[in-house]
Amino acid sequence: MDWAIEVRDLTKKFDRYTAVDRLSFKVPAGKIFGFLGPNGSGKSTTIRMLCGIMRPTSGAGTVTGHDITADPEKIKQNIGYMSQKFSLYEDLTVEENLSFFGGIYGLKKQELAQRLEEVLETALLGTKRKALAGILSGGWKQRLALGCAIIHRPQLLILDEPTAGVDPVSRRVFWDILRELASLGFTILVTTHYMDEAEQCDLVAIMYQGVLEGFGSPAELKQEWQVNSLENVFIAMVERHRSLSEEVKV
Ligand SMILES: Nc1ncnc2c1ncn2[C@@H]1O[C@H](COP(=O)(O)OP(=O)(O)O)[C@@H](O)[C@H]1O
Ligand SMILES: [Mg+2]
Fold first, then answer.
1. Contact at 8 Å (CB) between 60 and 10?
2. pLDDT in tens for each of the 250 residues of the chain?
3. What structural domains and CATH numbers belong to the chain?
4. From the alpha carbon of 207, which atom of ligand 1 is closest?
5. What's the predicted TM-score (pTM) here?
6. How many Å lie between the centroid of ligand 1 and the Cα of residue 43?
7. How far is ligand 2, taken at its centre, from the CA of residue 193, in Å?
8. What is the maximum alpha-carbon separation in the chain?
């Protein structure tokens, strides 16, 4: 099996606070992997370690086959990352933004020109290629940020809450694009608070207070928790924790 992500006992501590606690899982290549959990559960911290931006306190992992502590630079070439607070150059046009990011990844002129056309088409940006990024609405900005993250054709795309605060129609368009990318062979890690999006993932992980509480396909998780939706899996998991911590207090 070709694993896009493999982590074993991955842990991150900030002083005495454990933000990510002995996380272990594997994600096969070519899948859409939903990384879920309430705010503060350690998703972004895990992502930073996977991208090679932050060193784990302990544990190990590989991303696109490269070791996250020994080879972070190789990982950066193989992934596309869209952070929770992505940045675009607002005074550059759509195609200038894409060219700029392509340049950072070392694409040569001819390859860049070809990728530019492909990305404009895939991310549905063609009609606004000459528009300044600064005047685009939220959904368009999101798609442009996605385009910038895939311009170098990364094996793995990591999207941290890409659709937060975007209207439902734009979210649907965005997910149509993600499914298209997965069908082209990209592996996608995506965090979201929207359970309709989580239902569309091939594989889902649910984090709670730094700990991996659930892992499997949406169907497997619903079966395991005996509920009819991922939203109910999520709520049941949080409520179980609340009641456990109430017991401790009593
Ligand atoms: N650089 C940091 N220094 C100290 N604490 C941090 C830092 N980054 C994140 N944390 C803490 O770690 C926990 C997990 O944060 P984060 O990974 O951002 O969660 P999520 O993305 O799931 O909302 C939070 O309690 C957060 O305050
Ligand atoms: Mg986060």
1. yes
2. 689 999 999 999 999 999 999 999 999 999 999 999 999 999 999 999 999 999 999 999 999 999 999 999 999 999 999 988 888 999 999 999 999 999 999 999 999 999 999 999 999 999 999 999 999 999 999 999 999 999 999 999 999 999 988 899 999 999 999 999 999 999 999 999 999 999 999 999 999 999 999 999 999 999 999 999 999 998 998 888 888 777 766 5
3. 3-249 (3.40.50.300)
4. 22
5. 0.94
6. 8
7. 10
8. 68
